[in-house]
Design a protein that fits this description.
- Keywords: Hydrolase, Signal.
- InterPro entries: Pectin_lyas_fold, Pectin_lyase_fold/virulence, QRT3-like, RHGA/B-epi-like_pectate_lyase.
- One of its GO terms (molecular function) is polygalacturonase activity.
- It is a single chain.
- By secondary structure, this protein is mostly beta strands.
- It has two domains: about 45-360, 3 Solenoid (Pectate Lyase C-like); about 455-745, Pectate Lyase C-like, CATH 2.160.20.
- It is built from four helices and 48 strands.
- The strands form three sheets. It has a 36-stranded mixed β-sheet that branches. Strands 26-28-30-33-35-37-40-44-46-47 form a ten-stranded mixed β-sheet. Strands 42-43 form a two-stranded antiparallel sheet.
- Bound molecules: 2-acetamido-2-deoxy-beta-D-glucopyranose (5 copies).
- One 2-acetamido-2-deoxy-beta-D-glucopyranose binds near residues 459, 461 and 462.
- One 2-acetamido-2-deoxy-beta-D-glucopyranose binds next to loops.
Length: about 775
């Protein structure tokens, strides 16, 4: 697919952009910013060459690239905060080429920096590069914890021209949820100790980085974060692949180290729990180096599963404590383990424990299925439908016009022809369900918004989907990428997405970089009408995976707002009853998820089978907890569904007990749940900071079998896990505390907060 660059250069029409075959480079770009004044005239797509970049490997392109990022409109540039976080969407696009830069490039909120995936362009630091970072990936107005809406994909970042003796970080990436870091190569000189691929510093709450390659350098990733899912990362000739600077809970899946000195350096004292699965190391002296396991305040918990190595596997203080591979069928665990039949945890210091993976979830060699996020670069532009460029079915995407009927007609026609459907950035209002038939591939642009409106979604007792992927029994393909699903109004019956379809292959039904947002942004009445959760039953559910569905979900943040992304002041307390409801039996893969601030539960798995979760980060609603009078299931008690918890195990007046659970798992089987990270920092209507036990219970497990839980960490929960029995007829026993924090105390986090950590919970694994 490589074009001949020479031909164009020779004929002197190099500036003519009609060169790459990549559909996105060539399609009509008519995205808008629907929520700012004069937003129809907002430039979403920015080809850096249109801003003066040459990409010839010799011209200094620093200023041109920065201009492409920073340019706003006649009212303001983009780095001022004037447009909020959601009002200044931009895709800064790099055609094939090598872009030489001499100083740090700064990103801005709402920006996806994206290269042509057919021949990834390179951003290259010059030999005389001045600055500590090649790319500062986060808008400087935000700290890491509120660094949302940034992206980098399809690029090569290169420091090979910079002296080995210098210190440089290719990508500063102290960001949190709703970001994309995918398909990037970090190219550094071999042996250059001061060169670091990615660095995160301070406090961050990131979800996932995926499909990255690191070549050379001293450190691939220097990572400080509450949690992360690292997926399919390759490290060649990097001295240290991943160096943790602090961590509560992470999953590293599909990491491949070759000719490194250390794969993962987990020696830092503030190291919570790491799950390392489906990974390999060759010619690497240690896959993992760790500090001593400290009991009492457990730090340094580890779980390794399906690991192939030719050197030492885990080394503690210079001594190999594990060598050789960890074959399928066992986990090697260091930390607190609840074995089947035991009521108290056992502190394992590094032992093999039997495990199993459901056939449905793994490939022929026992690895969990993973799928690289599609770019659809195999599509010709003629096979792609821009929804705002179909004459018979006008679509506005302006946050005012009802686009339901036109979009349905376009999506239906596209599915029949297997066309790709492109939604230029905007806010597309849906007054009824948009049905996604088999054969659908939908892509957004810098987080295109699909937003529910109207009476169809108004009845709390009759949930109604905004996006419905297939009907029960449908088998086929439906993939959605880069959307935000939201509500334009207070809609107690709105289910943002319902999946019914199963794919013939894992990943055929998939949601990539698709997020759920209720409140806290312009373009919705929930931005200003939700000071009180009692009067703001803003949505029912984010995502419902129904019984026959089978879906692969990578990088998703389900966020009921706790603050206003667009700078509005005042309290933001919309109430969404639930986050993810999983009743699917036919194979579910959830990678890199954050599910936050829903009233009754964050994730509810019931009557489900064959579920893999790689990371579930969670937070409770900030207004719940001590001092709150609206006790769960309020304000939803008048419209509870059979799937909702009734909190009957709590005293009627217990504000600490009557808080949304992070995870409920009921009558389900074949579950492999990794890295549950459940955090609570503030509580009650005044959001008082809370540093001890702020929430009574984190999770409730009832009547499950073949359930394997690896890495369950909390901040400020009195109990990690509750259990109760379920009889064959569905009758439930009494709730009892199965894993209290006192028996699983972790290190104090950030000098303040009480943590709990269980390395493995296998009581229901039989
Ligand atoms: C639209 O934006 C361009 C570029 O910023 C500007 O020159 C032009 O005046 C704007 N038009 C309107 C109607 O605002
Ligand atoms: C093994 O890795 C070292 C660097 O750690 C490298 O110098 C050496 O060439 C590698 N050997 C092979 C056989 O790849
Ligand atoms: C399973 O996945 C792993 C990791 O992607 C891969 O190396 C292996 O070849 C796959 N096995 C089969 C049978 O496809
Ligand atoms: C809301 O839905 C419930 C359950 O379907 C139904 O009984 C009730 O009549 C509906 N309320 C309204 C106002 O439509
Ligand atoms: C599960 O999905 C497969 C396709 O992968 C489909 O053929 C089958 O009917 C589904 N089974 C159920 C119980 O939904």
């Amino acid at each position: 697919m490589r074009r001949s660059r020479f031909l164009f250069a020779l004929s002197g029409i190099q500036a003519c952009a009609a060169a790459s075959k990549f559909w996105y480079e060539n399609i009509k770009h008519n995205g808008i910013s629907a929520s700012i004044p004069n937003g129809n005239n907002w430039t979403v797509f920015r080809n850096v060459k249109d801003y003066g970049a040459k990409g010839d490997g010799t011209t200094d392109d620093t200023a041109a690239i920065q201009r492409a990022i920073t340019t706003g409109n006649s009212a303001s540039t983009r780095e001022t905060g004037r447009f909020g976080s959601t009002g200044q969407p931009a895709v800064v696009y790099f055609p094939v080429g090598t872009y030489l830069v001499k100083a740090t490039i700064r990103s801005a909120v709402g920006t996806l920096l994206m290269g042509d995936p057919l021949d990834k362009p390179t951003i290259k630091a010059s030999a005389d590069f001045a600055g500590a970072q090649l790319l500062f990936g986060r808008d400087k107005q935000f700290t890491g914890l509120v660094g949302f809406y940034h992206g980098v994909k399809g690029l090569v970042l290169d420091s090979t021209a910079v002296a080995r003796t210098k210190a440089i970080t290719l990508l500063e990436w102290s960001v949190s949820q709703n970001n994309i870091l995918s398909d990037v190569v970090f190219r550094m000189p071999v042996g250059a100790d001061g060169h670091t691929g990615i660095a995160t510093t301070g406090l961050n709450s990131g979800l996932i980085m995926n499909e990255l390659v690191f070549e050379g350098g001293g450190t691939g990733i220097s990572l400080a974060a509450t949690q992360y899912h690292l997926k399919n990362l390759v490290f060649n000739n990097v001295k240290t692949g991943v160096k943790f600077m602090n961590l509560l809970q992470a999953t590293a899946q599909g990491l491949r180290f070759s000719s490194c000195s250390v794969g993962i350096d987990a020696t830092v004292a503030t190291m919570g729990m790491l799950n390392l699965i489906d990974s390999t190391a060759t010619n690497t002296s240690a896959l993992v180096t760790a500090g001593a396991l400290s009991a009492g305040a457990v730090s340094g918990s580890l779980m390794l599963e399906n690991i192939r190595v030719d050197g030492s596997t885990v080394r503690v203080s210079g001594t190999a404590v594990l060598t050789g591979s960890v074959e399928p069928g066992v986990s090697w665990i260091r930390g607190n383990v609840y074995k089947a039949g035991s009521t108290s945890p056992q502190l394992l210091t590094g032992q093999r424990v039997p495990t199993s993976r459901p056939d449905r979830l793994v490939n022929g060699t026992g690895f969990y299925y993973t799928i690289a996020q599609p770019t659809y670069s195999e599509y010709d532009v003629t096979q792609v439908i821009n929804v705002k460029d179909v004459a018979q079915h006008p679509v506005a995407g302006d946050g005012v016009t009802d686009d339901t009927a036109s979009l349905q007609a376009i999506v239906n026609a596209a599915a029949e022809k297997s066309n790709l459907v492109y939604f230029p950035h905007g806010i597309y209002l849906l007054s009824d369900t948009l049905f996604i038939p088999t054969g659908s591939r939908l892509v957004g642009e810098a987080w295109t918004q699909l937003s529910a409106t109207g009476t169809r979604f108004a009845n709390a007792s009759r949930p109604h989907p905004m996006i419905q992927i297939g009907r029960p029994g449908d088998v086929g393909l439906a993939q959605l990428s880069d959307f935000v699903f939201t509500v334009a109004d207070i809609l107690p019956g709105a289910v943002l997405v319902e999946v019914n379809m199963a794919g013939p292959k894992p990943g055929d039904v998939a949601l990539f970089n698709c997020h759920y947002r209720v409140g806290g942004a312009r373009g919705s009445k929930t931005q200003t009408a939700c000071a009180n959760p009692q009067t703001c039953l803003a949505a029912r559910l984010s995502l419902h995976l129904t019984q026959h569905s089978s879906a692969y979900i990578e990088n998703s943040w389900s966020w009921t707002a706790d603050h206003d992304l667009d700078g509005g002041s005042g309290t933001v307390y919309p109430g969404t009853a639930g986050g993810f409801l999983i009743e699917a039996q036919n194979g579910t893969w959830i990678l890199g998820s954050g599910i936050e601030h829903h009233v009754l539960y964050q994730v509810n798995i019931r009557n489900a089978k064959n579920v893999f979760i790689g990371l579930q980060e969670g937070e409770s609603a900030y207004w719940q907890g001590t001092g709150n009078k609206l006790l769960a299931p309020e304000p939803w008690s008048k419209s509870l569904l059979a799937s909702d918890p009734d909190f009957g195990w709590c005293a009627v007046d217990s504000a600490m007990c009557r808080m949304g659970l992070y995870q409920i798992v009921t009558s389900s089987t074949n579950l492999n749940l990794y890295s549950s990270g459940f955090w609570n920092f503030v509580g009650g209507p005044t959001r008082a900071m809370c540093t001890a036990d702020c929430q009574e219970n984190a999770a409730l497990y009832e009547g499950n079998s073949r359930m394997h839980v690896y890495g369950f960490s909390t901040i400020n929960s009195k109990n990690l896990i509750l259990e109760r029995s379920v009889s064959a007829s569905g009758g439930k026993g009494d709730v009892s505390v199965a894993a209290p924090r006192t028996a699983n105390a972790g290190a104090v986090f950030d000098g303040l907060f009480k943590t709990g950590v269980v390395a493995a919970y296998l009581k229901m694994s039989g």
